[in-house]
Prior knowledge:
This protein is of the alpha/beta class. It has helices at residues 17-26, 49-58, 76-82, 97-106, 152-166, 183-189, 198-201, 206-217, and strands at residues 4-7, 32-37, 63-68, 84-90, 110-115, 133-137, 171-175, 193-196. The protein has an eight-stranded parallel β-sheet with strand order 1-8-7-6-5-4-3-2. 34% of the residues lie in helices and 20% in strands. The structure holds D-xylitol-5-phosphate and zinc ion. Zinc ion binds at residues 8, 33, 35, 66, 175, 195.
Amino acid sequence: MIRYLSPSILNSNFLDLRSTIEMLNQSEAEWIHLDIMDGHFVPNLTFGPPIVQMISSIARKPLDIHLMIEDPDRYIDAFIDAGASILTVHYEACIHLHRTITHIKSRGIKAGVAINPHTPVFLLEEILPYTDLVLNMTVNPGFGGQKFIESSVNKIIKLKKLIDATGSQALIEVDGGIDTDNLETLLKAGVNVAVIGSAIFQSPDAPNEIRQLKSIMKNY
Ligand code: DX5
Ligand code: ZN
């Protein structure tokens, strides 16, 4: 079973971006999670395709790109050209989600659908056969360092049942407030990919934190 760690660099020191990516290259983390925010879909702004392209030029791990932007169709090709390996759009931001997901996959990369904490999993039923990944937000998107929403665990159990019932191969990814304390519960609920930001980058020893997180994942 796939159990990947996807460190989010959102709360890392951007003055030291090169050394962050080199540290992740050498770590046991499988993916690198990049958070793209537009100041409309979420109340915060980050960066766009030029920075992703620079990261891509030195990253040796797949770039797992989380688009927290309205009407993401406008930028999908730019992020794929910049080096995305997995591109995830929000259910709440796409009017023609099937078209969007089909387009991402037609470009030869993995497509994901993200849902906010208030969005029920049953709304994904028709898109599950087409999506490679479901990103269940475990905080309201927009900022790193927020508190994990405990009711997410039951939601993931429901999502796992729905995925199994529809015969979908979609991976379950979780994002927000995850650390060494709640990771195990999430893995037991069926999570495949854990996005972890502050727990890694606010730690005095990020490589050691990654080792600890991966050693928990190896038990599942
Ligand atoms: C939040 C972002 C997350 C964030 C996670 O909107 O999507 O990827 O960086 O950071 P932590 O682990 O600090 O909650
Ligand atoms: Zn994210």
